[in-house]
Every structure is written in structure tokens, then in C-alpha cells.
Amino acid sequence: MNTFKSLFGWILVLGVLMIPVLCQDEESIITVCQEEDNDFRVDCLLEPKPNYHTDYEFSMSKGQKEIIINTNISGIMPEPRFRHNTFVTELEPYGFRLTIMSFTISENTTFICKVTKIQKTLFVELDSVEPCSAISVFLLGSPWLNLLVPLCILQLWEAI
Ligand SMILES: *[C@@H]1O[C@H](CO)[C@@H](O)[C@H](O)[C@H]1NC(C)=O
Ligand SMILES: *[C@@H]1O[C@H](CO)[C@@H](O)[C@H](O)[C@H]1NC(C)=O
Questions:
Q1: Nearest ligand atom owner, CA of 116
Q2: What is the pTM of this model?
Q3: Could you say which ligand is closest to the alpha carbon of residue 48?
């Protein structure tokens, strides 16, 4: 009985810790991580506006300068150094994943993602980039997810 109680307690604690992740606050729309083979990944979970021609653009800004990494907006070219070592795949149910091969950030960097003219940014501190495996184990493949979605809704409800 006690074991059951403490297990329940842990589930609650986990749930509370994970609320910000699951409830998709501003920050979690864009996530970055480092893959085992040293590729750098930027996930952008922006939902395209309906009735628009979907396009995407990934860039980063350092100081005043915006550096285009990958886009399929016609007429915009990425920086030469990102022209042949990046690719973008679509995520389900929506969103885009940018992969930069053999890349890691060498200073604090702001990543910008645009989908159908909606723009989000994420400030990434040097040395704060986590391995992708840590993130996917954390989020996916966990039965907690089903349990936590109601918590997320509850939190939203309380916020109103
Ligand atoms: C850009 O990619 C989106 C999603 O794959 C696609 O729907 C759209 O047609 C592409 N735009 C161009 C100009 O290729
Ligand atoms: C990176 O950002 C952090 C947090 O804003 C800051 O404390 C640190 O000084 C920055 N590092 C560099 C090299 O600018």
C-alpha cells in the first residue's frame, strides 16, 4: 500500500515537472539537440496557418546578423557554409526538423524558425545543448504521456 502511495507521489512530481514541456509554452515550440553522430538538430513545431502556401525558413542570429541556414522560400539562398550540409524533414502532425550535419554551436546562438510568416526564436546558451537521445526518451516512449495530458489541460484551465 505504501509502495503504491509513493509511486503515485512520484508520478505527481514527474507530472508537475513535465507540465511546461507538454503544455508547449513559447520556448518548447523550438527545441535543439545534438545527435550521437554529431549532427545538430532543430525541431520547430509551428503549425502552418490554414489556407496558406506552406513554407519554412531556419536561420540563426548572432548579434545583428541573421544567417539563413535552410529555407524553401523561393528566392532566398542559405549562407554558403550551410548550402550542402543541412536538410529539413516534415514532422507529424506538423512542424519541421532541421538537421545540420557535423555541427555544434561555438557561442550563444539564437535560432529562428519561420513557418508561413509566423516566427519563433529560441536563445541557446553555449554548453546547454542536450543529446537528442535524452530528449526523445524523456518525451516519447513513455506511458506517462497519456497520464499527463489531462494535467496539462487542468493547468490551462486553472490559468484562465
Ligand atoms: C515548402 O515545403 C512545404 C512543406 O513540405 C511544401 O508544402 C511547400 O510546397 C514547399 N514550398 C516550395 C516553394 O517548395
Ligand atoms: C551566454 O549567455 C549567458 C546567459 O545569457 C551569459 O551569462 C553568458 O555570458 C553568455 N556567454 C557569452 C560568451 O556571451
A1: 1
A2: 0.73
A3: 1
